[in-house]
Every structure is written in C-alpha cells, then in structure tokens.
Amino acid sequence: MMKTALVCGAGGFIGGHLVKKLKEQGFWVRGVDLKFHEYEESTADDFMICDLRDQYSVKHTIDMKFDEVYQLAADMGGAGFIFTGENDADIMHNSATINLNILDALCKRSIKNVFYSGSACMYPSHNQEDPNNPLCSEESAYPANPDSEYGWEKLFSERLYLAYGRNYGMNVKIGRYHNIFGPKGTWNGGREKAPAAICRKVSEAKDGTHIEIWGSGEQTRSFLYIDECIEGTLLLMRSNWSGPVNIGSEEMVSIRKLAEMIISISGKKLDINTCVGPIGVMGRNSDNKLINEKLGWKPAKSLRDGLEITYKWIQEQVSNKAQAHCSDAKSKHDLCKLEA
Q1: Cis before 143 (ω within 30)
Q2: Distance (Å, rounded) from C-alpha 334 to C-alpha 340?
Q3: What percent of the chain has pLDDT above 70?
Q4: In the predicted model, is pLDDT for residue 288 greater than 70?
Q5: Which residues lie closer than 8 Å to 333 by C-beta, 6 or more apart?
Q6: Quick check: is 38 in a domain?
Q7: How far apart, in whole angstroms, are the C-alpha atoms of residue 59 and residue 56?
Q8: Domain total for the chain?
Q9: ∠ CA(121), CA(197), CA(202), 5° rounding?
Q10: Would you state the pLDDT for residue 279?
Q11: Beta-bridge partner residues of 115
C-alpha cells in the first residue's frame, strides 16, 4: 500500500520542498497551512487551508492515519521579525498553540511517527558571544538561556514533543535547524533571513553603489542549503534515533563574508556599509559531530554553490517585481490620459 504523510506548514519554504521530495518517493501527501505556497503550485495530493491554532480545524486535518507526520508550522521569520521584541507574544502563543493542538490530535489518533522542526535559536546566548568560537553542541542546551522568545518557545515545544514520546509511546524525532536557505522562500517583506535579504539587496543595487548589512558584520553564522536540510530531515525521521540533533552546516562565515560572497556571485562592484539593526547572538555554527556519529550524515554542497542557485532565483523575483511595477505604472498613466 502507498505510504501517507502529513506536512504541517506545507505552504512555507521548507514545507514546500519537503512535499515535493515525499511525492518523488511515492508518498500520498496531505499538506496543510494558512496559505497556499507563494511561489509554486503544491504537489501535495490534498492541500488544506487550515489554522492549526484552532483545535477543531486540527481535528479535521488529522482525520486519518499517517505513516509520517512532519510538523514545520510556526510563526517565524528572520532577525528583523524575531529580535525586535514587537512580535514576541504572537510568536510564543501561535507556535506553542499549534504544537499543543497537533500533539493532542496525533495522540488521540494513535499516530506514532512525528518529526518536529526545532531551531538552533534554543541554544544559550552565553555560549554564542564569541563570533569565532560559538558552542552549539547538543549537550550545551542547558542551563537554558535562549536569546529570544522564539528560542524559548522552540525549547518548550522540543520538551513537549519529548514528553509525549515518553508518556504516550510516540516515535518523536527532533531536528534543530540551522539557518536553512535556498530558492522559493521568503525574500522580502520583513520575515526573510540573511542570505535571502542580502541576495535581494545585491540584486536591487546598481553597480558602483553600496548595500547595507546590520551590525558590525563580524557576527558569524552557518547556512544550510534546502536540499541538504530535506535529506537530513528524512534520514532522521526514518532512523531508530530520536535526537534532538543539529541539522546544519559547519561552514561558518561572518555576515560581511556572506555579503562579499553574494556580491562576487552577482558580478557587481558594490561597497558594504554597516548600520544599526537586530542581529541576535554574535556567533552560531552547527556542531555536526553527533549527527555524523549517529546517522553518518554531513552536508555535501558548499555555501557558495547554494548561494549561486539562490541568488539567481531571487534576482528573477526582483526583476519580475520591477517589470510588474512598470507595467502597472504604464497602465495608470494610460488610464489618466484617457480620462483627460
């Protein structure tokens, strides 16, 4: 019989790619989200528009047995959304409510296999003050001290899934994602993350001008290409081990170096200016010793290779938006001439 999968958050960046991969593997897939995917038609067999904060809606979403459940749905974004403090209550309430509802429904349906997408943002901020030597190994999570309410909610939900695993015999898998990037994800509007934001700024900038990055540019991160993320997720889901475990890259770069790499890919000559903005911790890098030991996994694609694909896609989005704006402006001009 054909295996079945449920992807919560299927209208998002990672969820959209995951649905596609599951379909390639022969699964019957139900996707669920507040919205359809913004950049492509979902390949899910059944796509439900549903608010997972509502218990009644979740009950009707999980109305059958699923072989695999992937819980990616969350209220999230990049530094400009997470670290301003303006969205803290919504982030915590919305994401926690979603996870409480989903686990309750899965338990009542006796569905055992569930993957939860945690985040590296749950690691203690005091271990990430040195941009050159951040500590993000799995066992360093406690004593807990995330740098944001987003990180605290991720830590709470991680513990919630583990508790359901212990108390109700659920086969829970937890991956702590580290800055996933790639095409067909948010690239503007305030919720985009650093790679997409810088790709957009470089695409929009005229040769010989400059772009701005937040902070000193010396803060460090590692970034994992989307295909590698999906590979690591599926490998963990189908293993006999629960985690939690980092799913990320160990290729750490400064934000300035990231910007320089994207500028190099673009072929433009641009200066980099720094400005005040939310930056989070000073250093973060995925520690992959545990996932390599347990699953034999490590990412193969270099950061530059992933950025070349991502930049090309975002450049196309910027160009399409500019053309649409020009077309709209021309239409308004023509209408004004007719009315005159």
Answers
A1: yes
A2: 10
A3: 95
A4: yes
A5: none
A6: no
A7: 5
A8: 1
A9: 145
A10: 86
A11: 70, 173
Inter-CA distances, 199 with 25, 183, 204, 258, 300, Å: 32, 11, 9, 10, 22
Q: How many Å apart are CA 82 and CA 67, to the nearest integer?
A: 33
Domain membership flag for residue 204: no
What is the value of pTM for the model shown?
Answer: 0.92
61's tokens? 């979403």
- Kindly report the length of the chain: 340
The backbone torsions φ and ψ at residue 301, rounded to the nearest 5 degrees and listed phi first, read -80, 135
In sequence order, the 6+-apart residues with CB closer than 8 A to the CB of 143 are 124
Predicted confidence (pLDDT) per residue in 103-112, tens digit: 999 999 999 9
Count CB atoms within 10 A of the CB of residue 40.
Answer: 12
Assess if residue 16 is contained within a domain: no
Q: By C-alpha distance, which of 21, 165, 154 is closest to 103? A: 165
Alpha helix segments (H runs only) across the chain: 13-24, 55-61, 79-82, 88-108, 149-168, 194-204, 226-237, 255-266, 289-295, 303-339
Both tokens assigned to 269: 């000559």
Per residue in 32-67, pLDDT (tens digit) is 999 999 999 999 999 999 999 999 999 999 999 999
Q: Is 264 part of any domain?
A: no
The CATH number of whichever domain residue 238 belongs to comes to 3.40.50.720
Residue numbers of the domain that contains 144: 74-184+225-250+284-300
Q: Give CA 263 to chain center in angstroms.
A: 23
* Whole-Å CA distances, 323 to 319, 328, 335: 6, 9, 18
User: 155, 162, 77: which is closest to 114 by C-alpha?
Assistant: 162
Predicted local confidence at residue 76, as pLDDT:
87
Q: Which residues are designated catalytic? A: 150
Looking from the CA of 231 toward its CB, the CA atoms found within 13 Å total: 15
